[in-house]
Design a protein that fits this description.
With 481 residues, the protein is α/β, with parallel strands linked by helices. It has 14 helices and 23 strands. The chain folds into three domains: 36 residues; 207 residues, P-loop containing nucleotide triphosphate hydrolases (Rossmann fold); 197 residues, 2-Layer Sandwich (Ribosomal Protein S5, domain 2), CATH 3.30.230. β13 and β14 form a beta hairpin. The protein binds thymidine-5'-diphosphate and magnesium ion (MG). The site of thymidine-5'-diphosphate has 15 residues, from α3 and α4.
Amino acid sequence: MAKNTLSFVCQNCGAAYNRWQGKCESCGEWNTLAEEDATGSVPVSIRSKRKGRTFALESLSGKTQDAPRLSSGMTELDRVTGGGFVRGSVLLVGGDPGIGKSTLLTQATSLMARAGHRIVYISGEEAVAQVRLRAERLGLSDAPVQLAAETSVEDIVSTLSEGAVPRLIVIDSIQTMWTDTVESAPGTVTQVRASAQALIRFAKKTGAAIILVGHVTKDGQIAGPRVVEHMVDAVLSFEGEGSQQFRILRAVKNRFGPTDEIGVFEMTGLGLREVTNPSELFLSERDLGTPGTAVFAGIEGTRPLLVELQALVAPTSLGTPRRAVVGWDPSRLSMVLAVLEAHCGVKLSGHDVYLNVAGGLRIHEPAADLAAAAALVSSLVNAQLPTDAVYFGEISLSGVVRPVAQTPVRLKEAAKLGFQRAVLPESARGEASGDAGLSLNAINSLTTLVAEIAARGSRRGDSSAPAEKNATPARFRRGEG
Ligand code: TYD
Ligand code: MG
């Protein structure tokens, strides 16, 4: 007997429960469960009781057509996708509302349409007039992009099935799409999943590439596009701090390319500008001569990236001192602080600690440990680090500075941007030999770095900051650890 079963589906992660509860046990989010028709989670077309048809099985060695790619006309976007959009692939572009997803895709689609491809842009959020207004602002009104404001997946698929197959279709956004095959309201996990499934089927069948735009919301009110992440070929995330003009496009998943490349853009009054040399940009507004800043020589994908880490260490008035970090992993910060306390005699338990990665970048590399430690100690002892030095190296729990990959690439970029010295792991010195003109300060243990910075601090204290003279030595319990 067919029974209409209802279930409660988490709008954040898609886990289903047969009764309502406040917290989703699967992802830990609160108030994300919504009632949905359980049978509806599979589109009607798939649920039919027909007997399965037979299909031919293939061998691994068969000749497969090389995936031909469509270049977006934007170098930074192509870098992240791995060289362009693959035929028949579906890509999800996620990001906070207002970060610039529609702007990025309007620019890219215009360039591709101008290059002579059939490109369709379906907006489920904005009226045609609004999309036109944006294109006008970007100076792209003349691009032959085919535009529509539609939300019904069936209508979209029927329309696009006519005439030449579009080379690329943008669906902005997947949360606004709905399909007749399921009964849930638009924006629910079930609708998002079923709509995405229908569009993915269309892409695979026709060979058109599809870009799905997905808003990521933290409160879980709108279904997170997370539920479609495993269905699509690639997931790109568009990140940035709202107040900063820099935007980073990062591949989170990519079946046809690398996942560690980033594309860097700058939001201007005339749309997104590609940033081909990000180091220059991230260092362009450096606070030269301020204690607590260190330049980290990092790597993002295949590209070196120099970025400034800023630390503030200040006496706390709270029982439990504050630890706040923007752009870096908080548990990594805790680890570096613990190593500084345990092995280098740096007392931080009475201090609030703030760490910020300049420019709104997010760093994922452990190689940033050394630069973070340098910035922290520099702020604590109020001693400015040399402005012409870069830092990189991983710190182990025992306080040893461990080697990291791609030392020569990091040093080359630093030299290119006019840096004179590098503080790096001792064990990387061999790799670095013969690298252009940088004086290398290879260190083996974090204690060495702390002692060097402390020495700068007391020198400075003697001459210019008498108040520091008494404060500095007391903060170090040398000889321990
Ligand atoms: P939008 O692409 O609409 O964001 P999303 O689709 O991710 O929600 O971009 C919105 C923001 O970008 C908005 O705050 C205005 C800003 N913006 C510019 O600064 N310059 C521009 O040329 C454009 C088109 C937008
Ligand atoms: Mg938008």
